[in-house]
Structures are given as structure tokens and as C-alpha cells.
Design goal:
The complex is a heterodimer. Helices cover 37% and strands 23% of the residues of chain A. By secondary structure, chain A is an alpha/beta fold. Chain A has a 6-stranded mixed β-sheet with strand order 6-7-8-3-9-10, with helices on both faces. The longest helix of chain A is centred in the last third of the chain and has 16 residues, at 199-214. Chain A starts with 19 loop residues before the first helix and ends with a helix. By secondary structure, chain B is mostly helical. Chain B has a two-stranded antiparallel sheet. Chain B is flat, with a radius of gyration of 24 Å. Classes of the chains: A alpha/beta, B mainly alpha.
């Protein structure tokens, strides 16, 4: 299930075969066109097309099992796609075949997970510092300074020497966000980052993301926080059964959903 | 545990899994039993002794320096076999999860072969298949029997370590791999910086267990004629030529091994309990 043919050119590759949509909007940094993905015979994504402008915030909502998380994993190349195309900045994600090519992409696209996935044998500060030092080969002192600033930014300067096991879920998630930010990515992917948290700590994490979005970070969020999506998103996508049922500006989608399925879903969760 | 009586409502009892595991390990009770056997054996031997013969304890004491030297040899074999086996096992275990099918397959076959082959058979193979000397560039290097025995014991250790490594690596949640991948770590970096350090904790208790087993297995080398404690005990017995000494001497040897392995077993149990809480 290798997507596309391996491309001989080293990365980053120049732009090629621009789609009609890109020509119309120009600034899109993430662009998916007719993406299909299946696990065995189970079709997970059945033709997903959308794009995200640089600095834009897109929220993906929808019932469990509608392929939201898989979609995010396709964007940073964790999961290969069957057909269609994904472009992130200058990377044709569906054409990346080798690990080296995927690593180049992942330096630009960071992901935050529902279960935080911090490295339990490293302190909060080390978790943040590891990737810039060993992946980007940046000088330790510089990285340390930046990591401390990032921990301060997510409100955890005092916890820098704590191990993940000693932190609450919300604190771990904020360290995970700092860890992703330390890579200075172009795009951040958030995979239901508040789903495992209790209502009080959800707020701390959402505040952190809100701040990021306002600073102009391109964010794609899979979320169940409808109010948050409404407040922050430039565009909301409602997915069900592997397709985008409806998309639009949050005010339109939440207040005047056009499709019956969207209405049914929103009436359940709002 | 007694079965609940009919009138008592069923209750969810606290989990007692740890206790079941511990009961298979060496315990202080085993030590007491061993000492009891030793004392009993000495008593019986003393009762059978001909008048005028030196007392049993005196005889054992007389041979102790020699036996101790043999025991040191056992330990040396165990250290070396463990070191060689662990080093080889680390590579073999890592090869087992390789993404290259031929490498993974070969490593699996090797692991399962050496893990399931009887230790004694492997030992004999090494004794009789390895040359007693090798000539490299005109230089003749003798291979003494104990080296061959060490190598023979290192083989099953290697296979067991290989399985310990594989199991530990695969017990780390795949989400750790995902997180590392999304931070642009490559596979080797992920393995050495993120996965493997987390494995060490999980590997330590089974590895120490394996060491205990290996230490006790070093006496197998006596069958192929290495001068370790068991061989020396047999020599001492034939020199004394008193059948009554048999049980006393062998239980004495057992005591030595118990004294050495018991602390390791206790430590393993403690480590296991500690890591079980942490994870």
C-alpha cells in the first residue's frame, strides 16, 4: 500500500502539479485532494479534500470512527494513503517513500496526541530538548534556553525537572505541546488532545492552543470541544464515515447546518 | 483460600498474583530446609563413621578450600558466559524485530533453536565440535575445556537474553514509536534514545533470574570434565572413600549455591515489585 511512486528528487521538492484549488487560493500550506485510505478491507477515508491556509485553524469534528485521527496521521506521513494527494508546504506527502524523506516532512509538521506520549524516562525539560538537539542538531545551550522559554509559555517553568509520571494529565499535555513547539514546526496537528483530561485541566490546555492559534500557528485540530472549535476555527469540517459531510465557517456550520447528518450530530453534542 | 460458604455473599478479593509468582522463587524457607538436610546428613554420616575416623565437619572443613576454589571457577564461568551471552543476545534480540524479513527470520530461528535445545546437549556439542586449539597466522592458541564450556553455556543465555530483549521492546507501547516518529527521530535514534532506555527496567529482573539459573547450571561443566566445584566434590569423595559422606558433601555444595543465589533472587523480587508499581 505504498502511496505513489518513489520520487528520485531529494527534498524539499519544488512545487509541481498545482491543483486547481491551490491556483485559486494561493496561500494554502496544507492541501488534501481526494484522499483514500483503508485498513485491509475497511475503508477509513473515502475521498477527503480540503486545504488549510497558512496561519489558519481548522477543526475536524465528527463521531468516533469517522477517520479523524487517521486523517491527521496521514498528513504527517505516519499512515500511508491509498490514493489521492497530500501536500504540506513543499512536501508531496503521498510520494514520500523513504524514512529520510518522511523525517524531513516531520520537522515541519508536529503532532500532539490524545495520550500525551511523553517519554517517561526523561524529565519535562529533556522531553522538550531531545528532538531539537538530536534531530535538528542545534547547539544544546540554545535549545535549553528555548525549551525553558517554552515551558514558561505553557505555564510549567517550575516543573522542568519533573518526570512525566509526576505530572497531571493537563500538565503532561502542555509539556507535549511545548515539546512539539520546540521543533519550530510550520503546522501543528492536535489529535483529540483534551479527550483524556478532566474538565478543569481541559481549560489550561485549550488556553495554550488558543494562544498558539492567535500567534499565527497553522493548526489542524481533531476535537470534541465544540465551543472551542466555534471560537477559534476559521473552518470546521464535519466528518462521518470517512467523508467530509459538511464544512464551513463555524458560525454557519454550527448555527445553520445544511445536512441532516450534521444536524443530528450537533443536536447530540451541543 | 477456603471456598466461600453458601450463606456468605461473593466478594471481590484483592488480587494476590504477586504472591503466586514469589512462591516459585528461592525463599528463606528453602535455606532452612537445606541447612536441615545438611545437618541431618552430617548426623547420619557421623553415626555411620568408624570409630577413630575424623569427624564429618572436620572432613568437610578440610576440603573446603579446594571446593571454594572450584566455586570461584563456577562463578568465573557464570560471569563470562553471562557477559558473552548478554552481548550476543542484545544483538540477536534487536535483529528479531528488524524490518528486514531475512534478518528477523534468521534471528528468530537461532533464538528458538538455542532456547529450546537442552543445555547439556549444547555443552557437549561445544566440547566435542570445537577444536582444542586454533592456529591463526602461525600462532597456535589453545582452547582449554573451560573456555569451551563457557561458550556452550553462553549459547542458551544468548537465546534467552534475545527473547528478553524482544519482549521488552515489544512491551513498550507503539504510541512511543509514534511520538518519536512525529518528532522526526529516525528508527535508530528512537530505538537507542527512547525505546531501549525504557526497556532496561523491564529487562533487569528476568535477566537476573537468568543469571541465577546459569550459575546453577555451571555445575553441568563437571560432566565434561571441567575442574569446577562439582568435579572437585566428586574427587574429594573418592579420596575419602566413605559412602556416608555423599549426602553431607552434596548438601554442602547446595548450600554454597544457595547462599550465592538467594540474595540475587531476593533482589530480583524487590526490583520486580518496584517496577510493577512504577509502570
Amino acid at each position: 500500500m505504498k502511496a505513489g511512486t518513489p520520487h528520485p528528487n531529494p527534498l524539499p521538492s519544488g512545487e509541481r502539479e498545482p491543483s486547481a484549488r491551490e491556483a485559486g487560493e494561493g496561500q494554502a500550506i496544507v492541501e488534501l485532494h481526494d484522499v483514500h485510505q483503508a485498513f485491509g478491507h475497511v475503508e477509513v477515508l473515502k475521498g477527503i479534500t480540503f486545504s488549510v491556509q497558512k496561519g489558519g485553524v481548522v477543526c475536524i469534528i465528527g463521531p468516533s470512527g469517522s477517520g479523524k485521527s487517521t486523517l491527521l496521521r496521514c498528513i504527517n506521513g505516519l499512515v500511508p494513503i491509498r490514493s489521492g494527494s497530500i501536500r504540506v508546504a513543499d512536501f508531496e506527502v503521498h510520494k514520500l517513500a523513504t524514512d529520510r524523506e518522511k523525517i524531513a516532512l516531520r520537522k515541519e509538521v508536529s503532532m500532539v496526541f490524545q495520550q500525551y506520549n511523553l517519554f517517561p524516562h526523561k524529565t519535562a525539560l529533556d522531553n522538550v530538548m531531545m528532538a531539537p538537539i538530536h534531530v535538528l542538531n542545534e547547539p544544546r545551550d540554545e535549545v535549553r534556553e528555548r525549551a525553558l522559554a517554552l515551558l514558561a509559555k505553557v505555564g510549567l517553568a517550575s516543573k522542568r525537572d519533573a518526570y512525566p509520571g509526576e505530572l497531571s494529565g493537563g500538565q503532561q499535555q502542555r509539556v507535549a505541546i511545548a515539546r512539539s513547539l520546540a521543533m519550530r514546526p510550520e503546522v501543528m496537528l492536535f489529535d483529540e488532545v483534551t479527550a483524556a483530561l478532566d474538565p478543569e485541566t481541559v481549560k489550561e490546555v485549550l488556553n495554550t492552543i488558543r494562544q498558539l492559534a492567535r500567534e499565527g500557528m497553522t493548526c489542524i485540530l481533531v476535537t470534541h470541544e465544540m465551543r472551542f472549535a466555534r471560537e477559534l476555527a476559521d473552518e470546521v469540517l464535519f466528518t462521518d464515515g470517512g467523508t467530509i459531510v459538511e464544512s464551513g465557517r463555524p458560525a454557519e456550520l454550527f448555527d445553520r447546518p445544511q445536512k441532516e447528518r450534521t444536524r443530528a450530530f450537533l443536536s447530540q453534542v451541543l | 483460600m477456603k471456598p466461600a460458604q453458601a450463606s456468605v455473599l461473593p466478594v471481590l478479593l484483592p488480587v494476590r498474583a504477586r504472591e503466586a509468582a514469589r512462591s516459585l522463587r528461592l525463599s528463606g524457607g528453602h535455606g532452612v530446609a537445606l541447612v536441615a538436610v545438611f545437618v541431618l546428613a552430617c548426623g547420619v554420616a557421623q553415626a555411620q563413621a568408624q570409630p577413630g575416623a575424623p569427624s564429618i565437619l572436620e572432613t568437610i572443613w578440610k576440603w573446603t578450600p579446594l571446593l571454594a576454589r572450584g566455586f570461584v571457577f563456577n562463578l568465573a564461568i557464570s560471569f563470562l558466559a553471562m557477559a558473552i551471552g548478554t552481548l550476543a543476545g542484545l544483538f540477536l534480540g534487536y535483529a528479531q524485530i528488524s524490518h528486514l524479513p531475512p534478518v528477523a527470520k534468521t534471528a528468530k530461528v537461532l533464538t528458538h533453536f538455542f532456547r529450546n535445545a537442552p543445555w547439556l546437549v549444547l555443552l557437549f556439542y561445544c566440547m566435542f565440535l570445537l577444536p582444542f586449539q586454533v592456529t591463526i597466522l602461525g600462532l597456535t592458541i589453545p582452547i582449554p575445556d573451560w573456555t569451551k564450556a563457557t561458550f556452550g553455556l553462553a549459547l542458551p543465555v544468548m537465546a534467552n537474553v534475545s527473547e528478553i530483549v524482544r519482549g521488552a521492546i515489544q512491551s513498550i507501547p507503539t504510541t512511543q514509536w509514534e511520538a518519536a516518529a512525529s518528532l522526526a527521530f529516525n528508527r535508530r535514534q528512537t530505538m537507542w534514545m527512547i525505546i531501549f532506555p525504557q526497556c532496561i527496567k523491564r529487562m533487569l529482573p528476568p535477566w537476573m533470574n537468568l543469571y541465577s539459573i546459569l550459575t546453577m547450571a555451571t555445575v553441568l561443566a563437571s560432566i565434561v570434565g571441567v575442574n569446577e566445584m562439582m568435579t572437585l566434590t566428586q574427587r574429594a569423595l573418592s579420596a575419602e572413600n566413605r559412602p556416608g559422606l555423599l549426602l553431607a558433601f552434596y548438601s554442602y555444595v547446595l548450600l554454597w549455591f544457595f547462599v550465592y543465589c538467594y540474595p540475587i533472587a531476593r533482589w530480583t523480587v524487590r526490583l520486580e515489585a518496584r517496577y510493577a508499581v512504577n509502570q
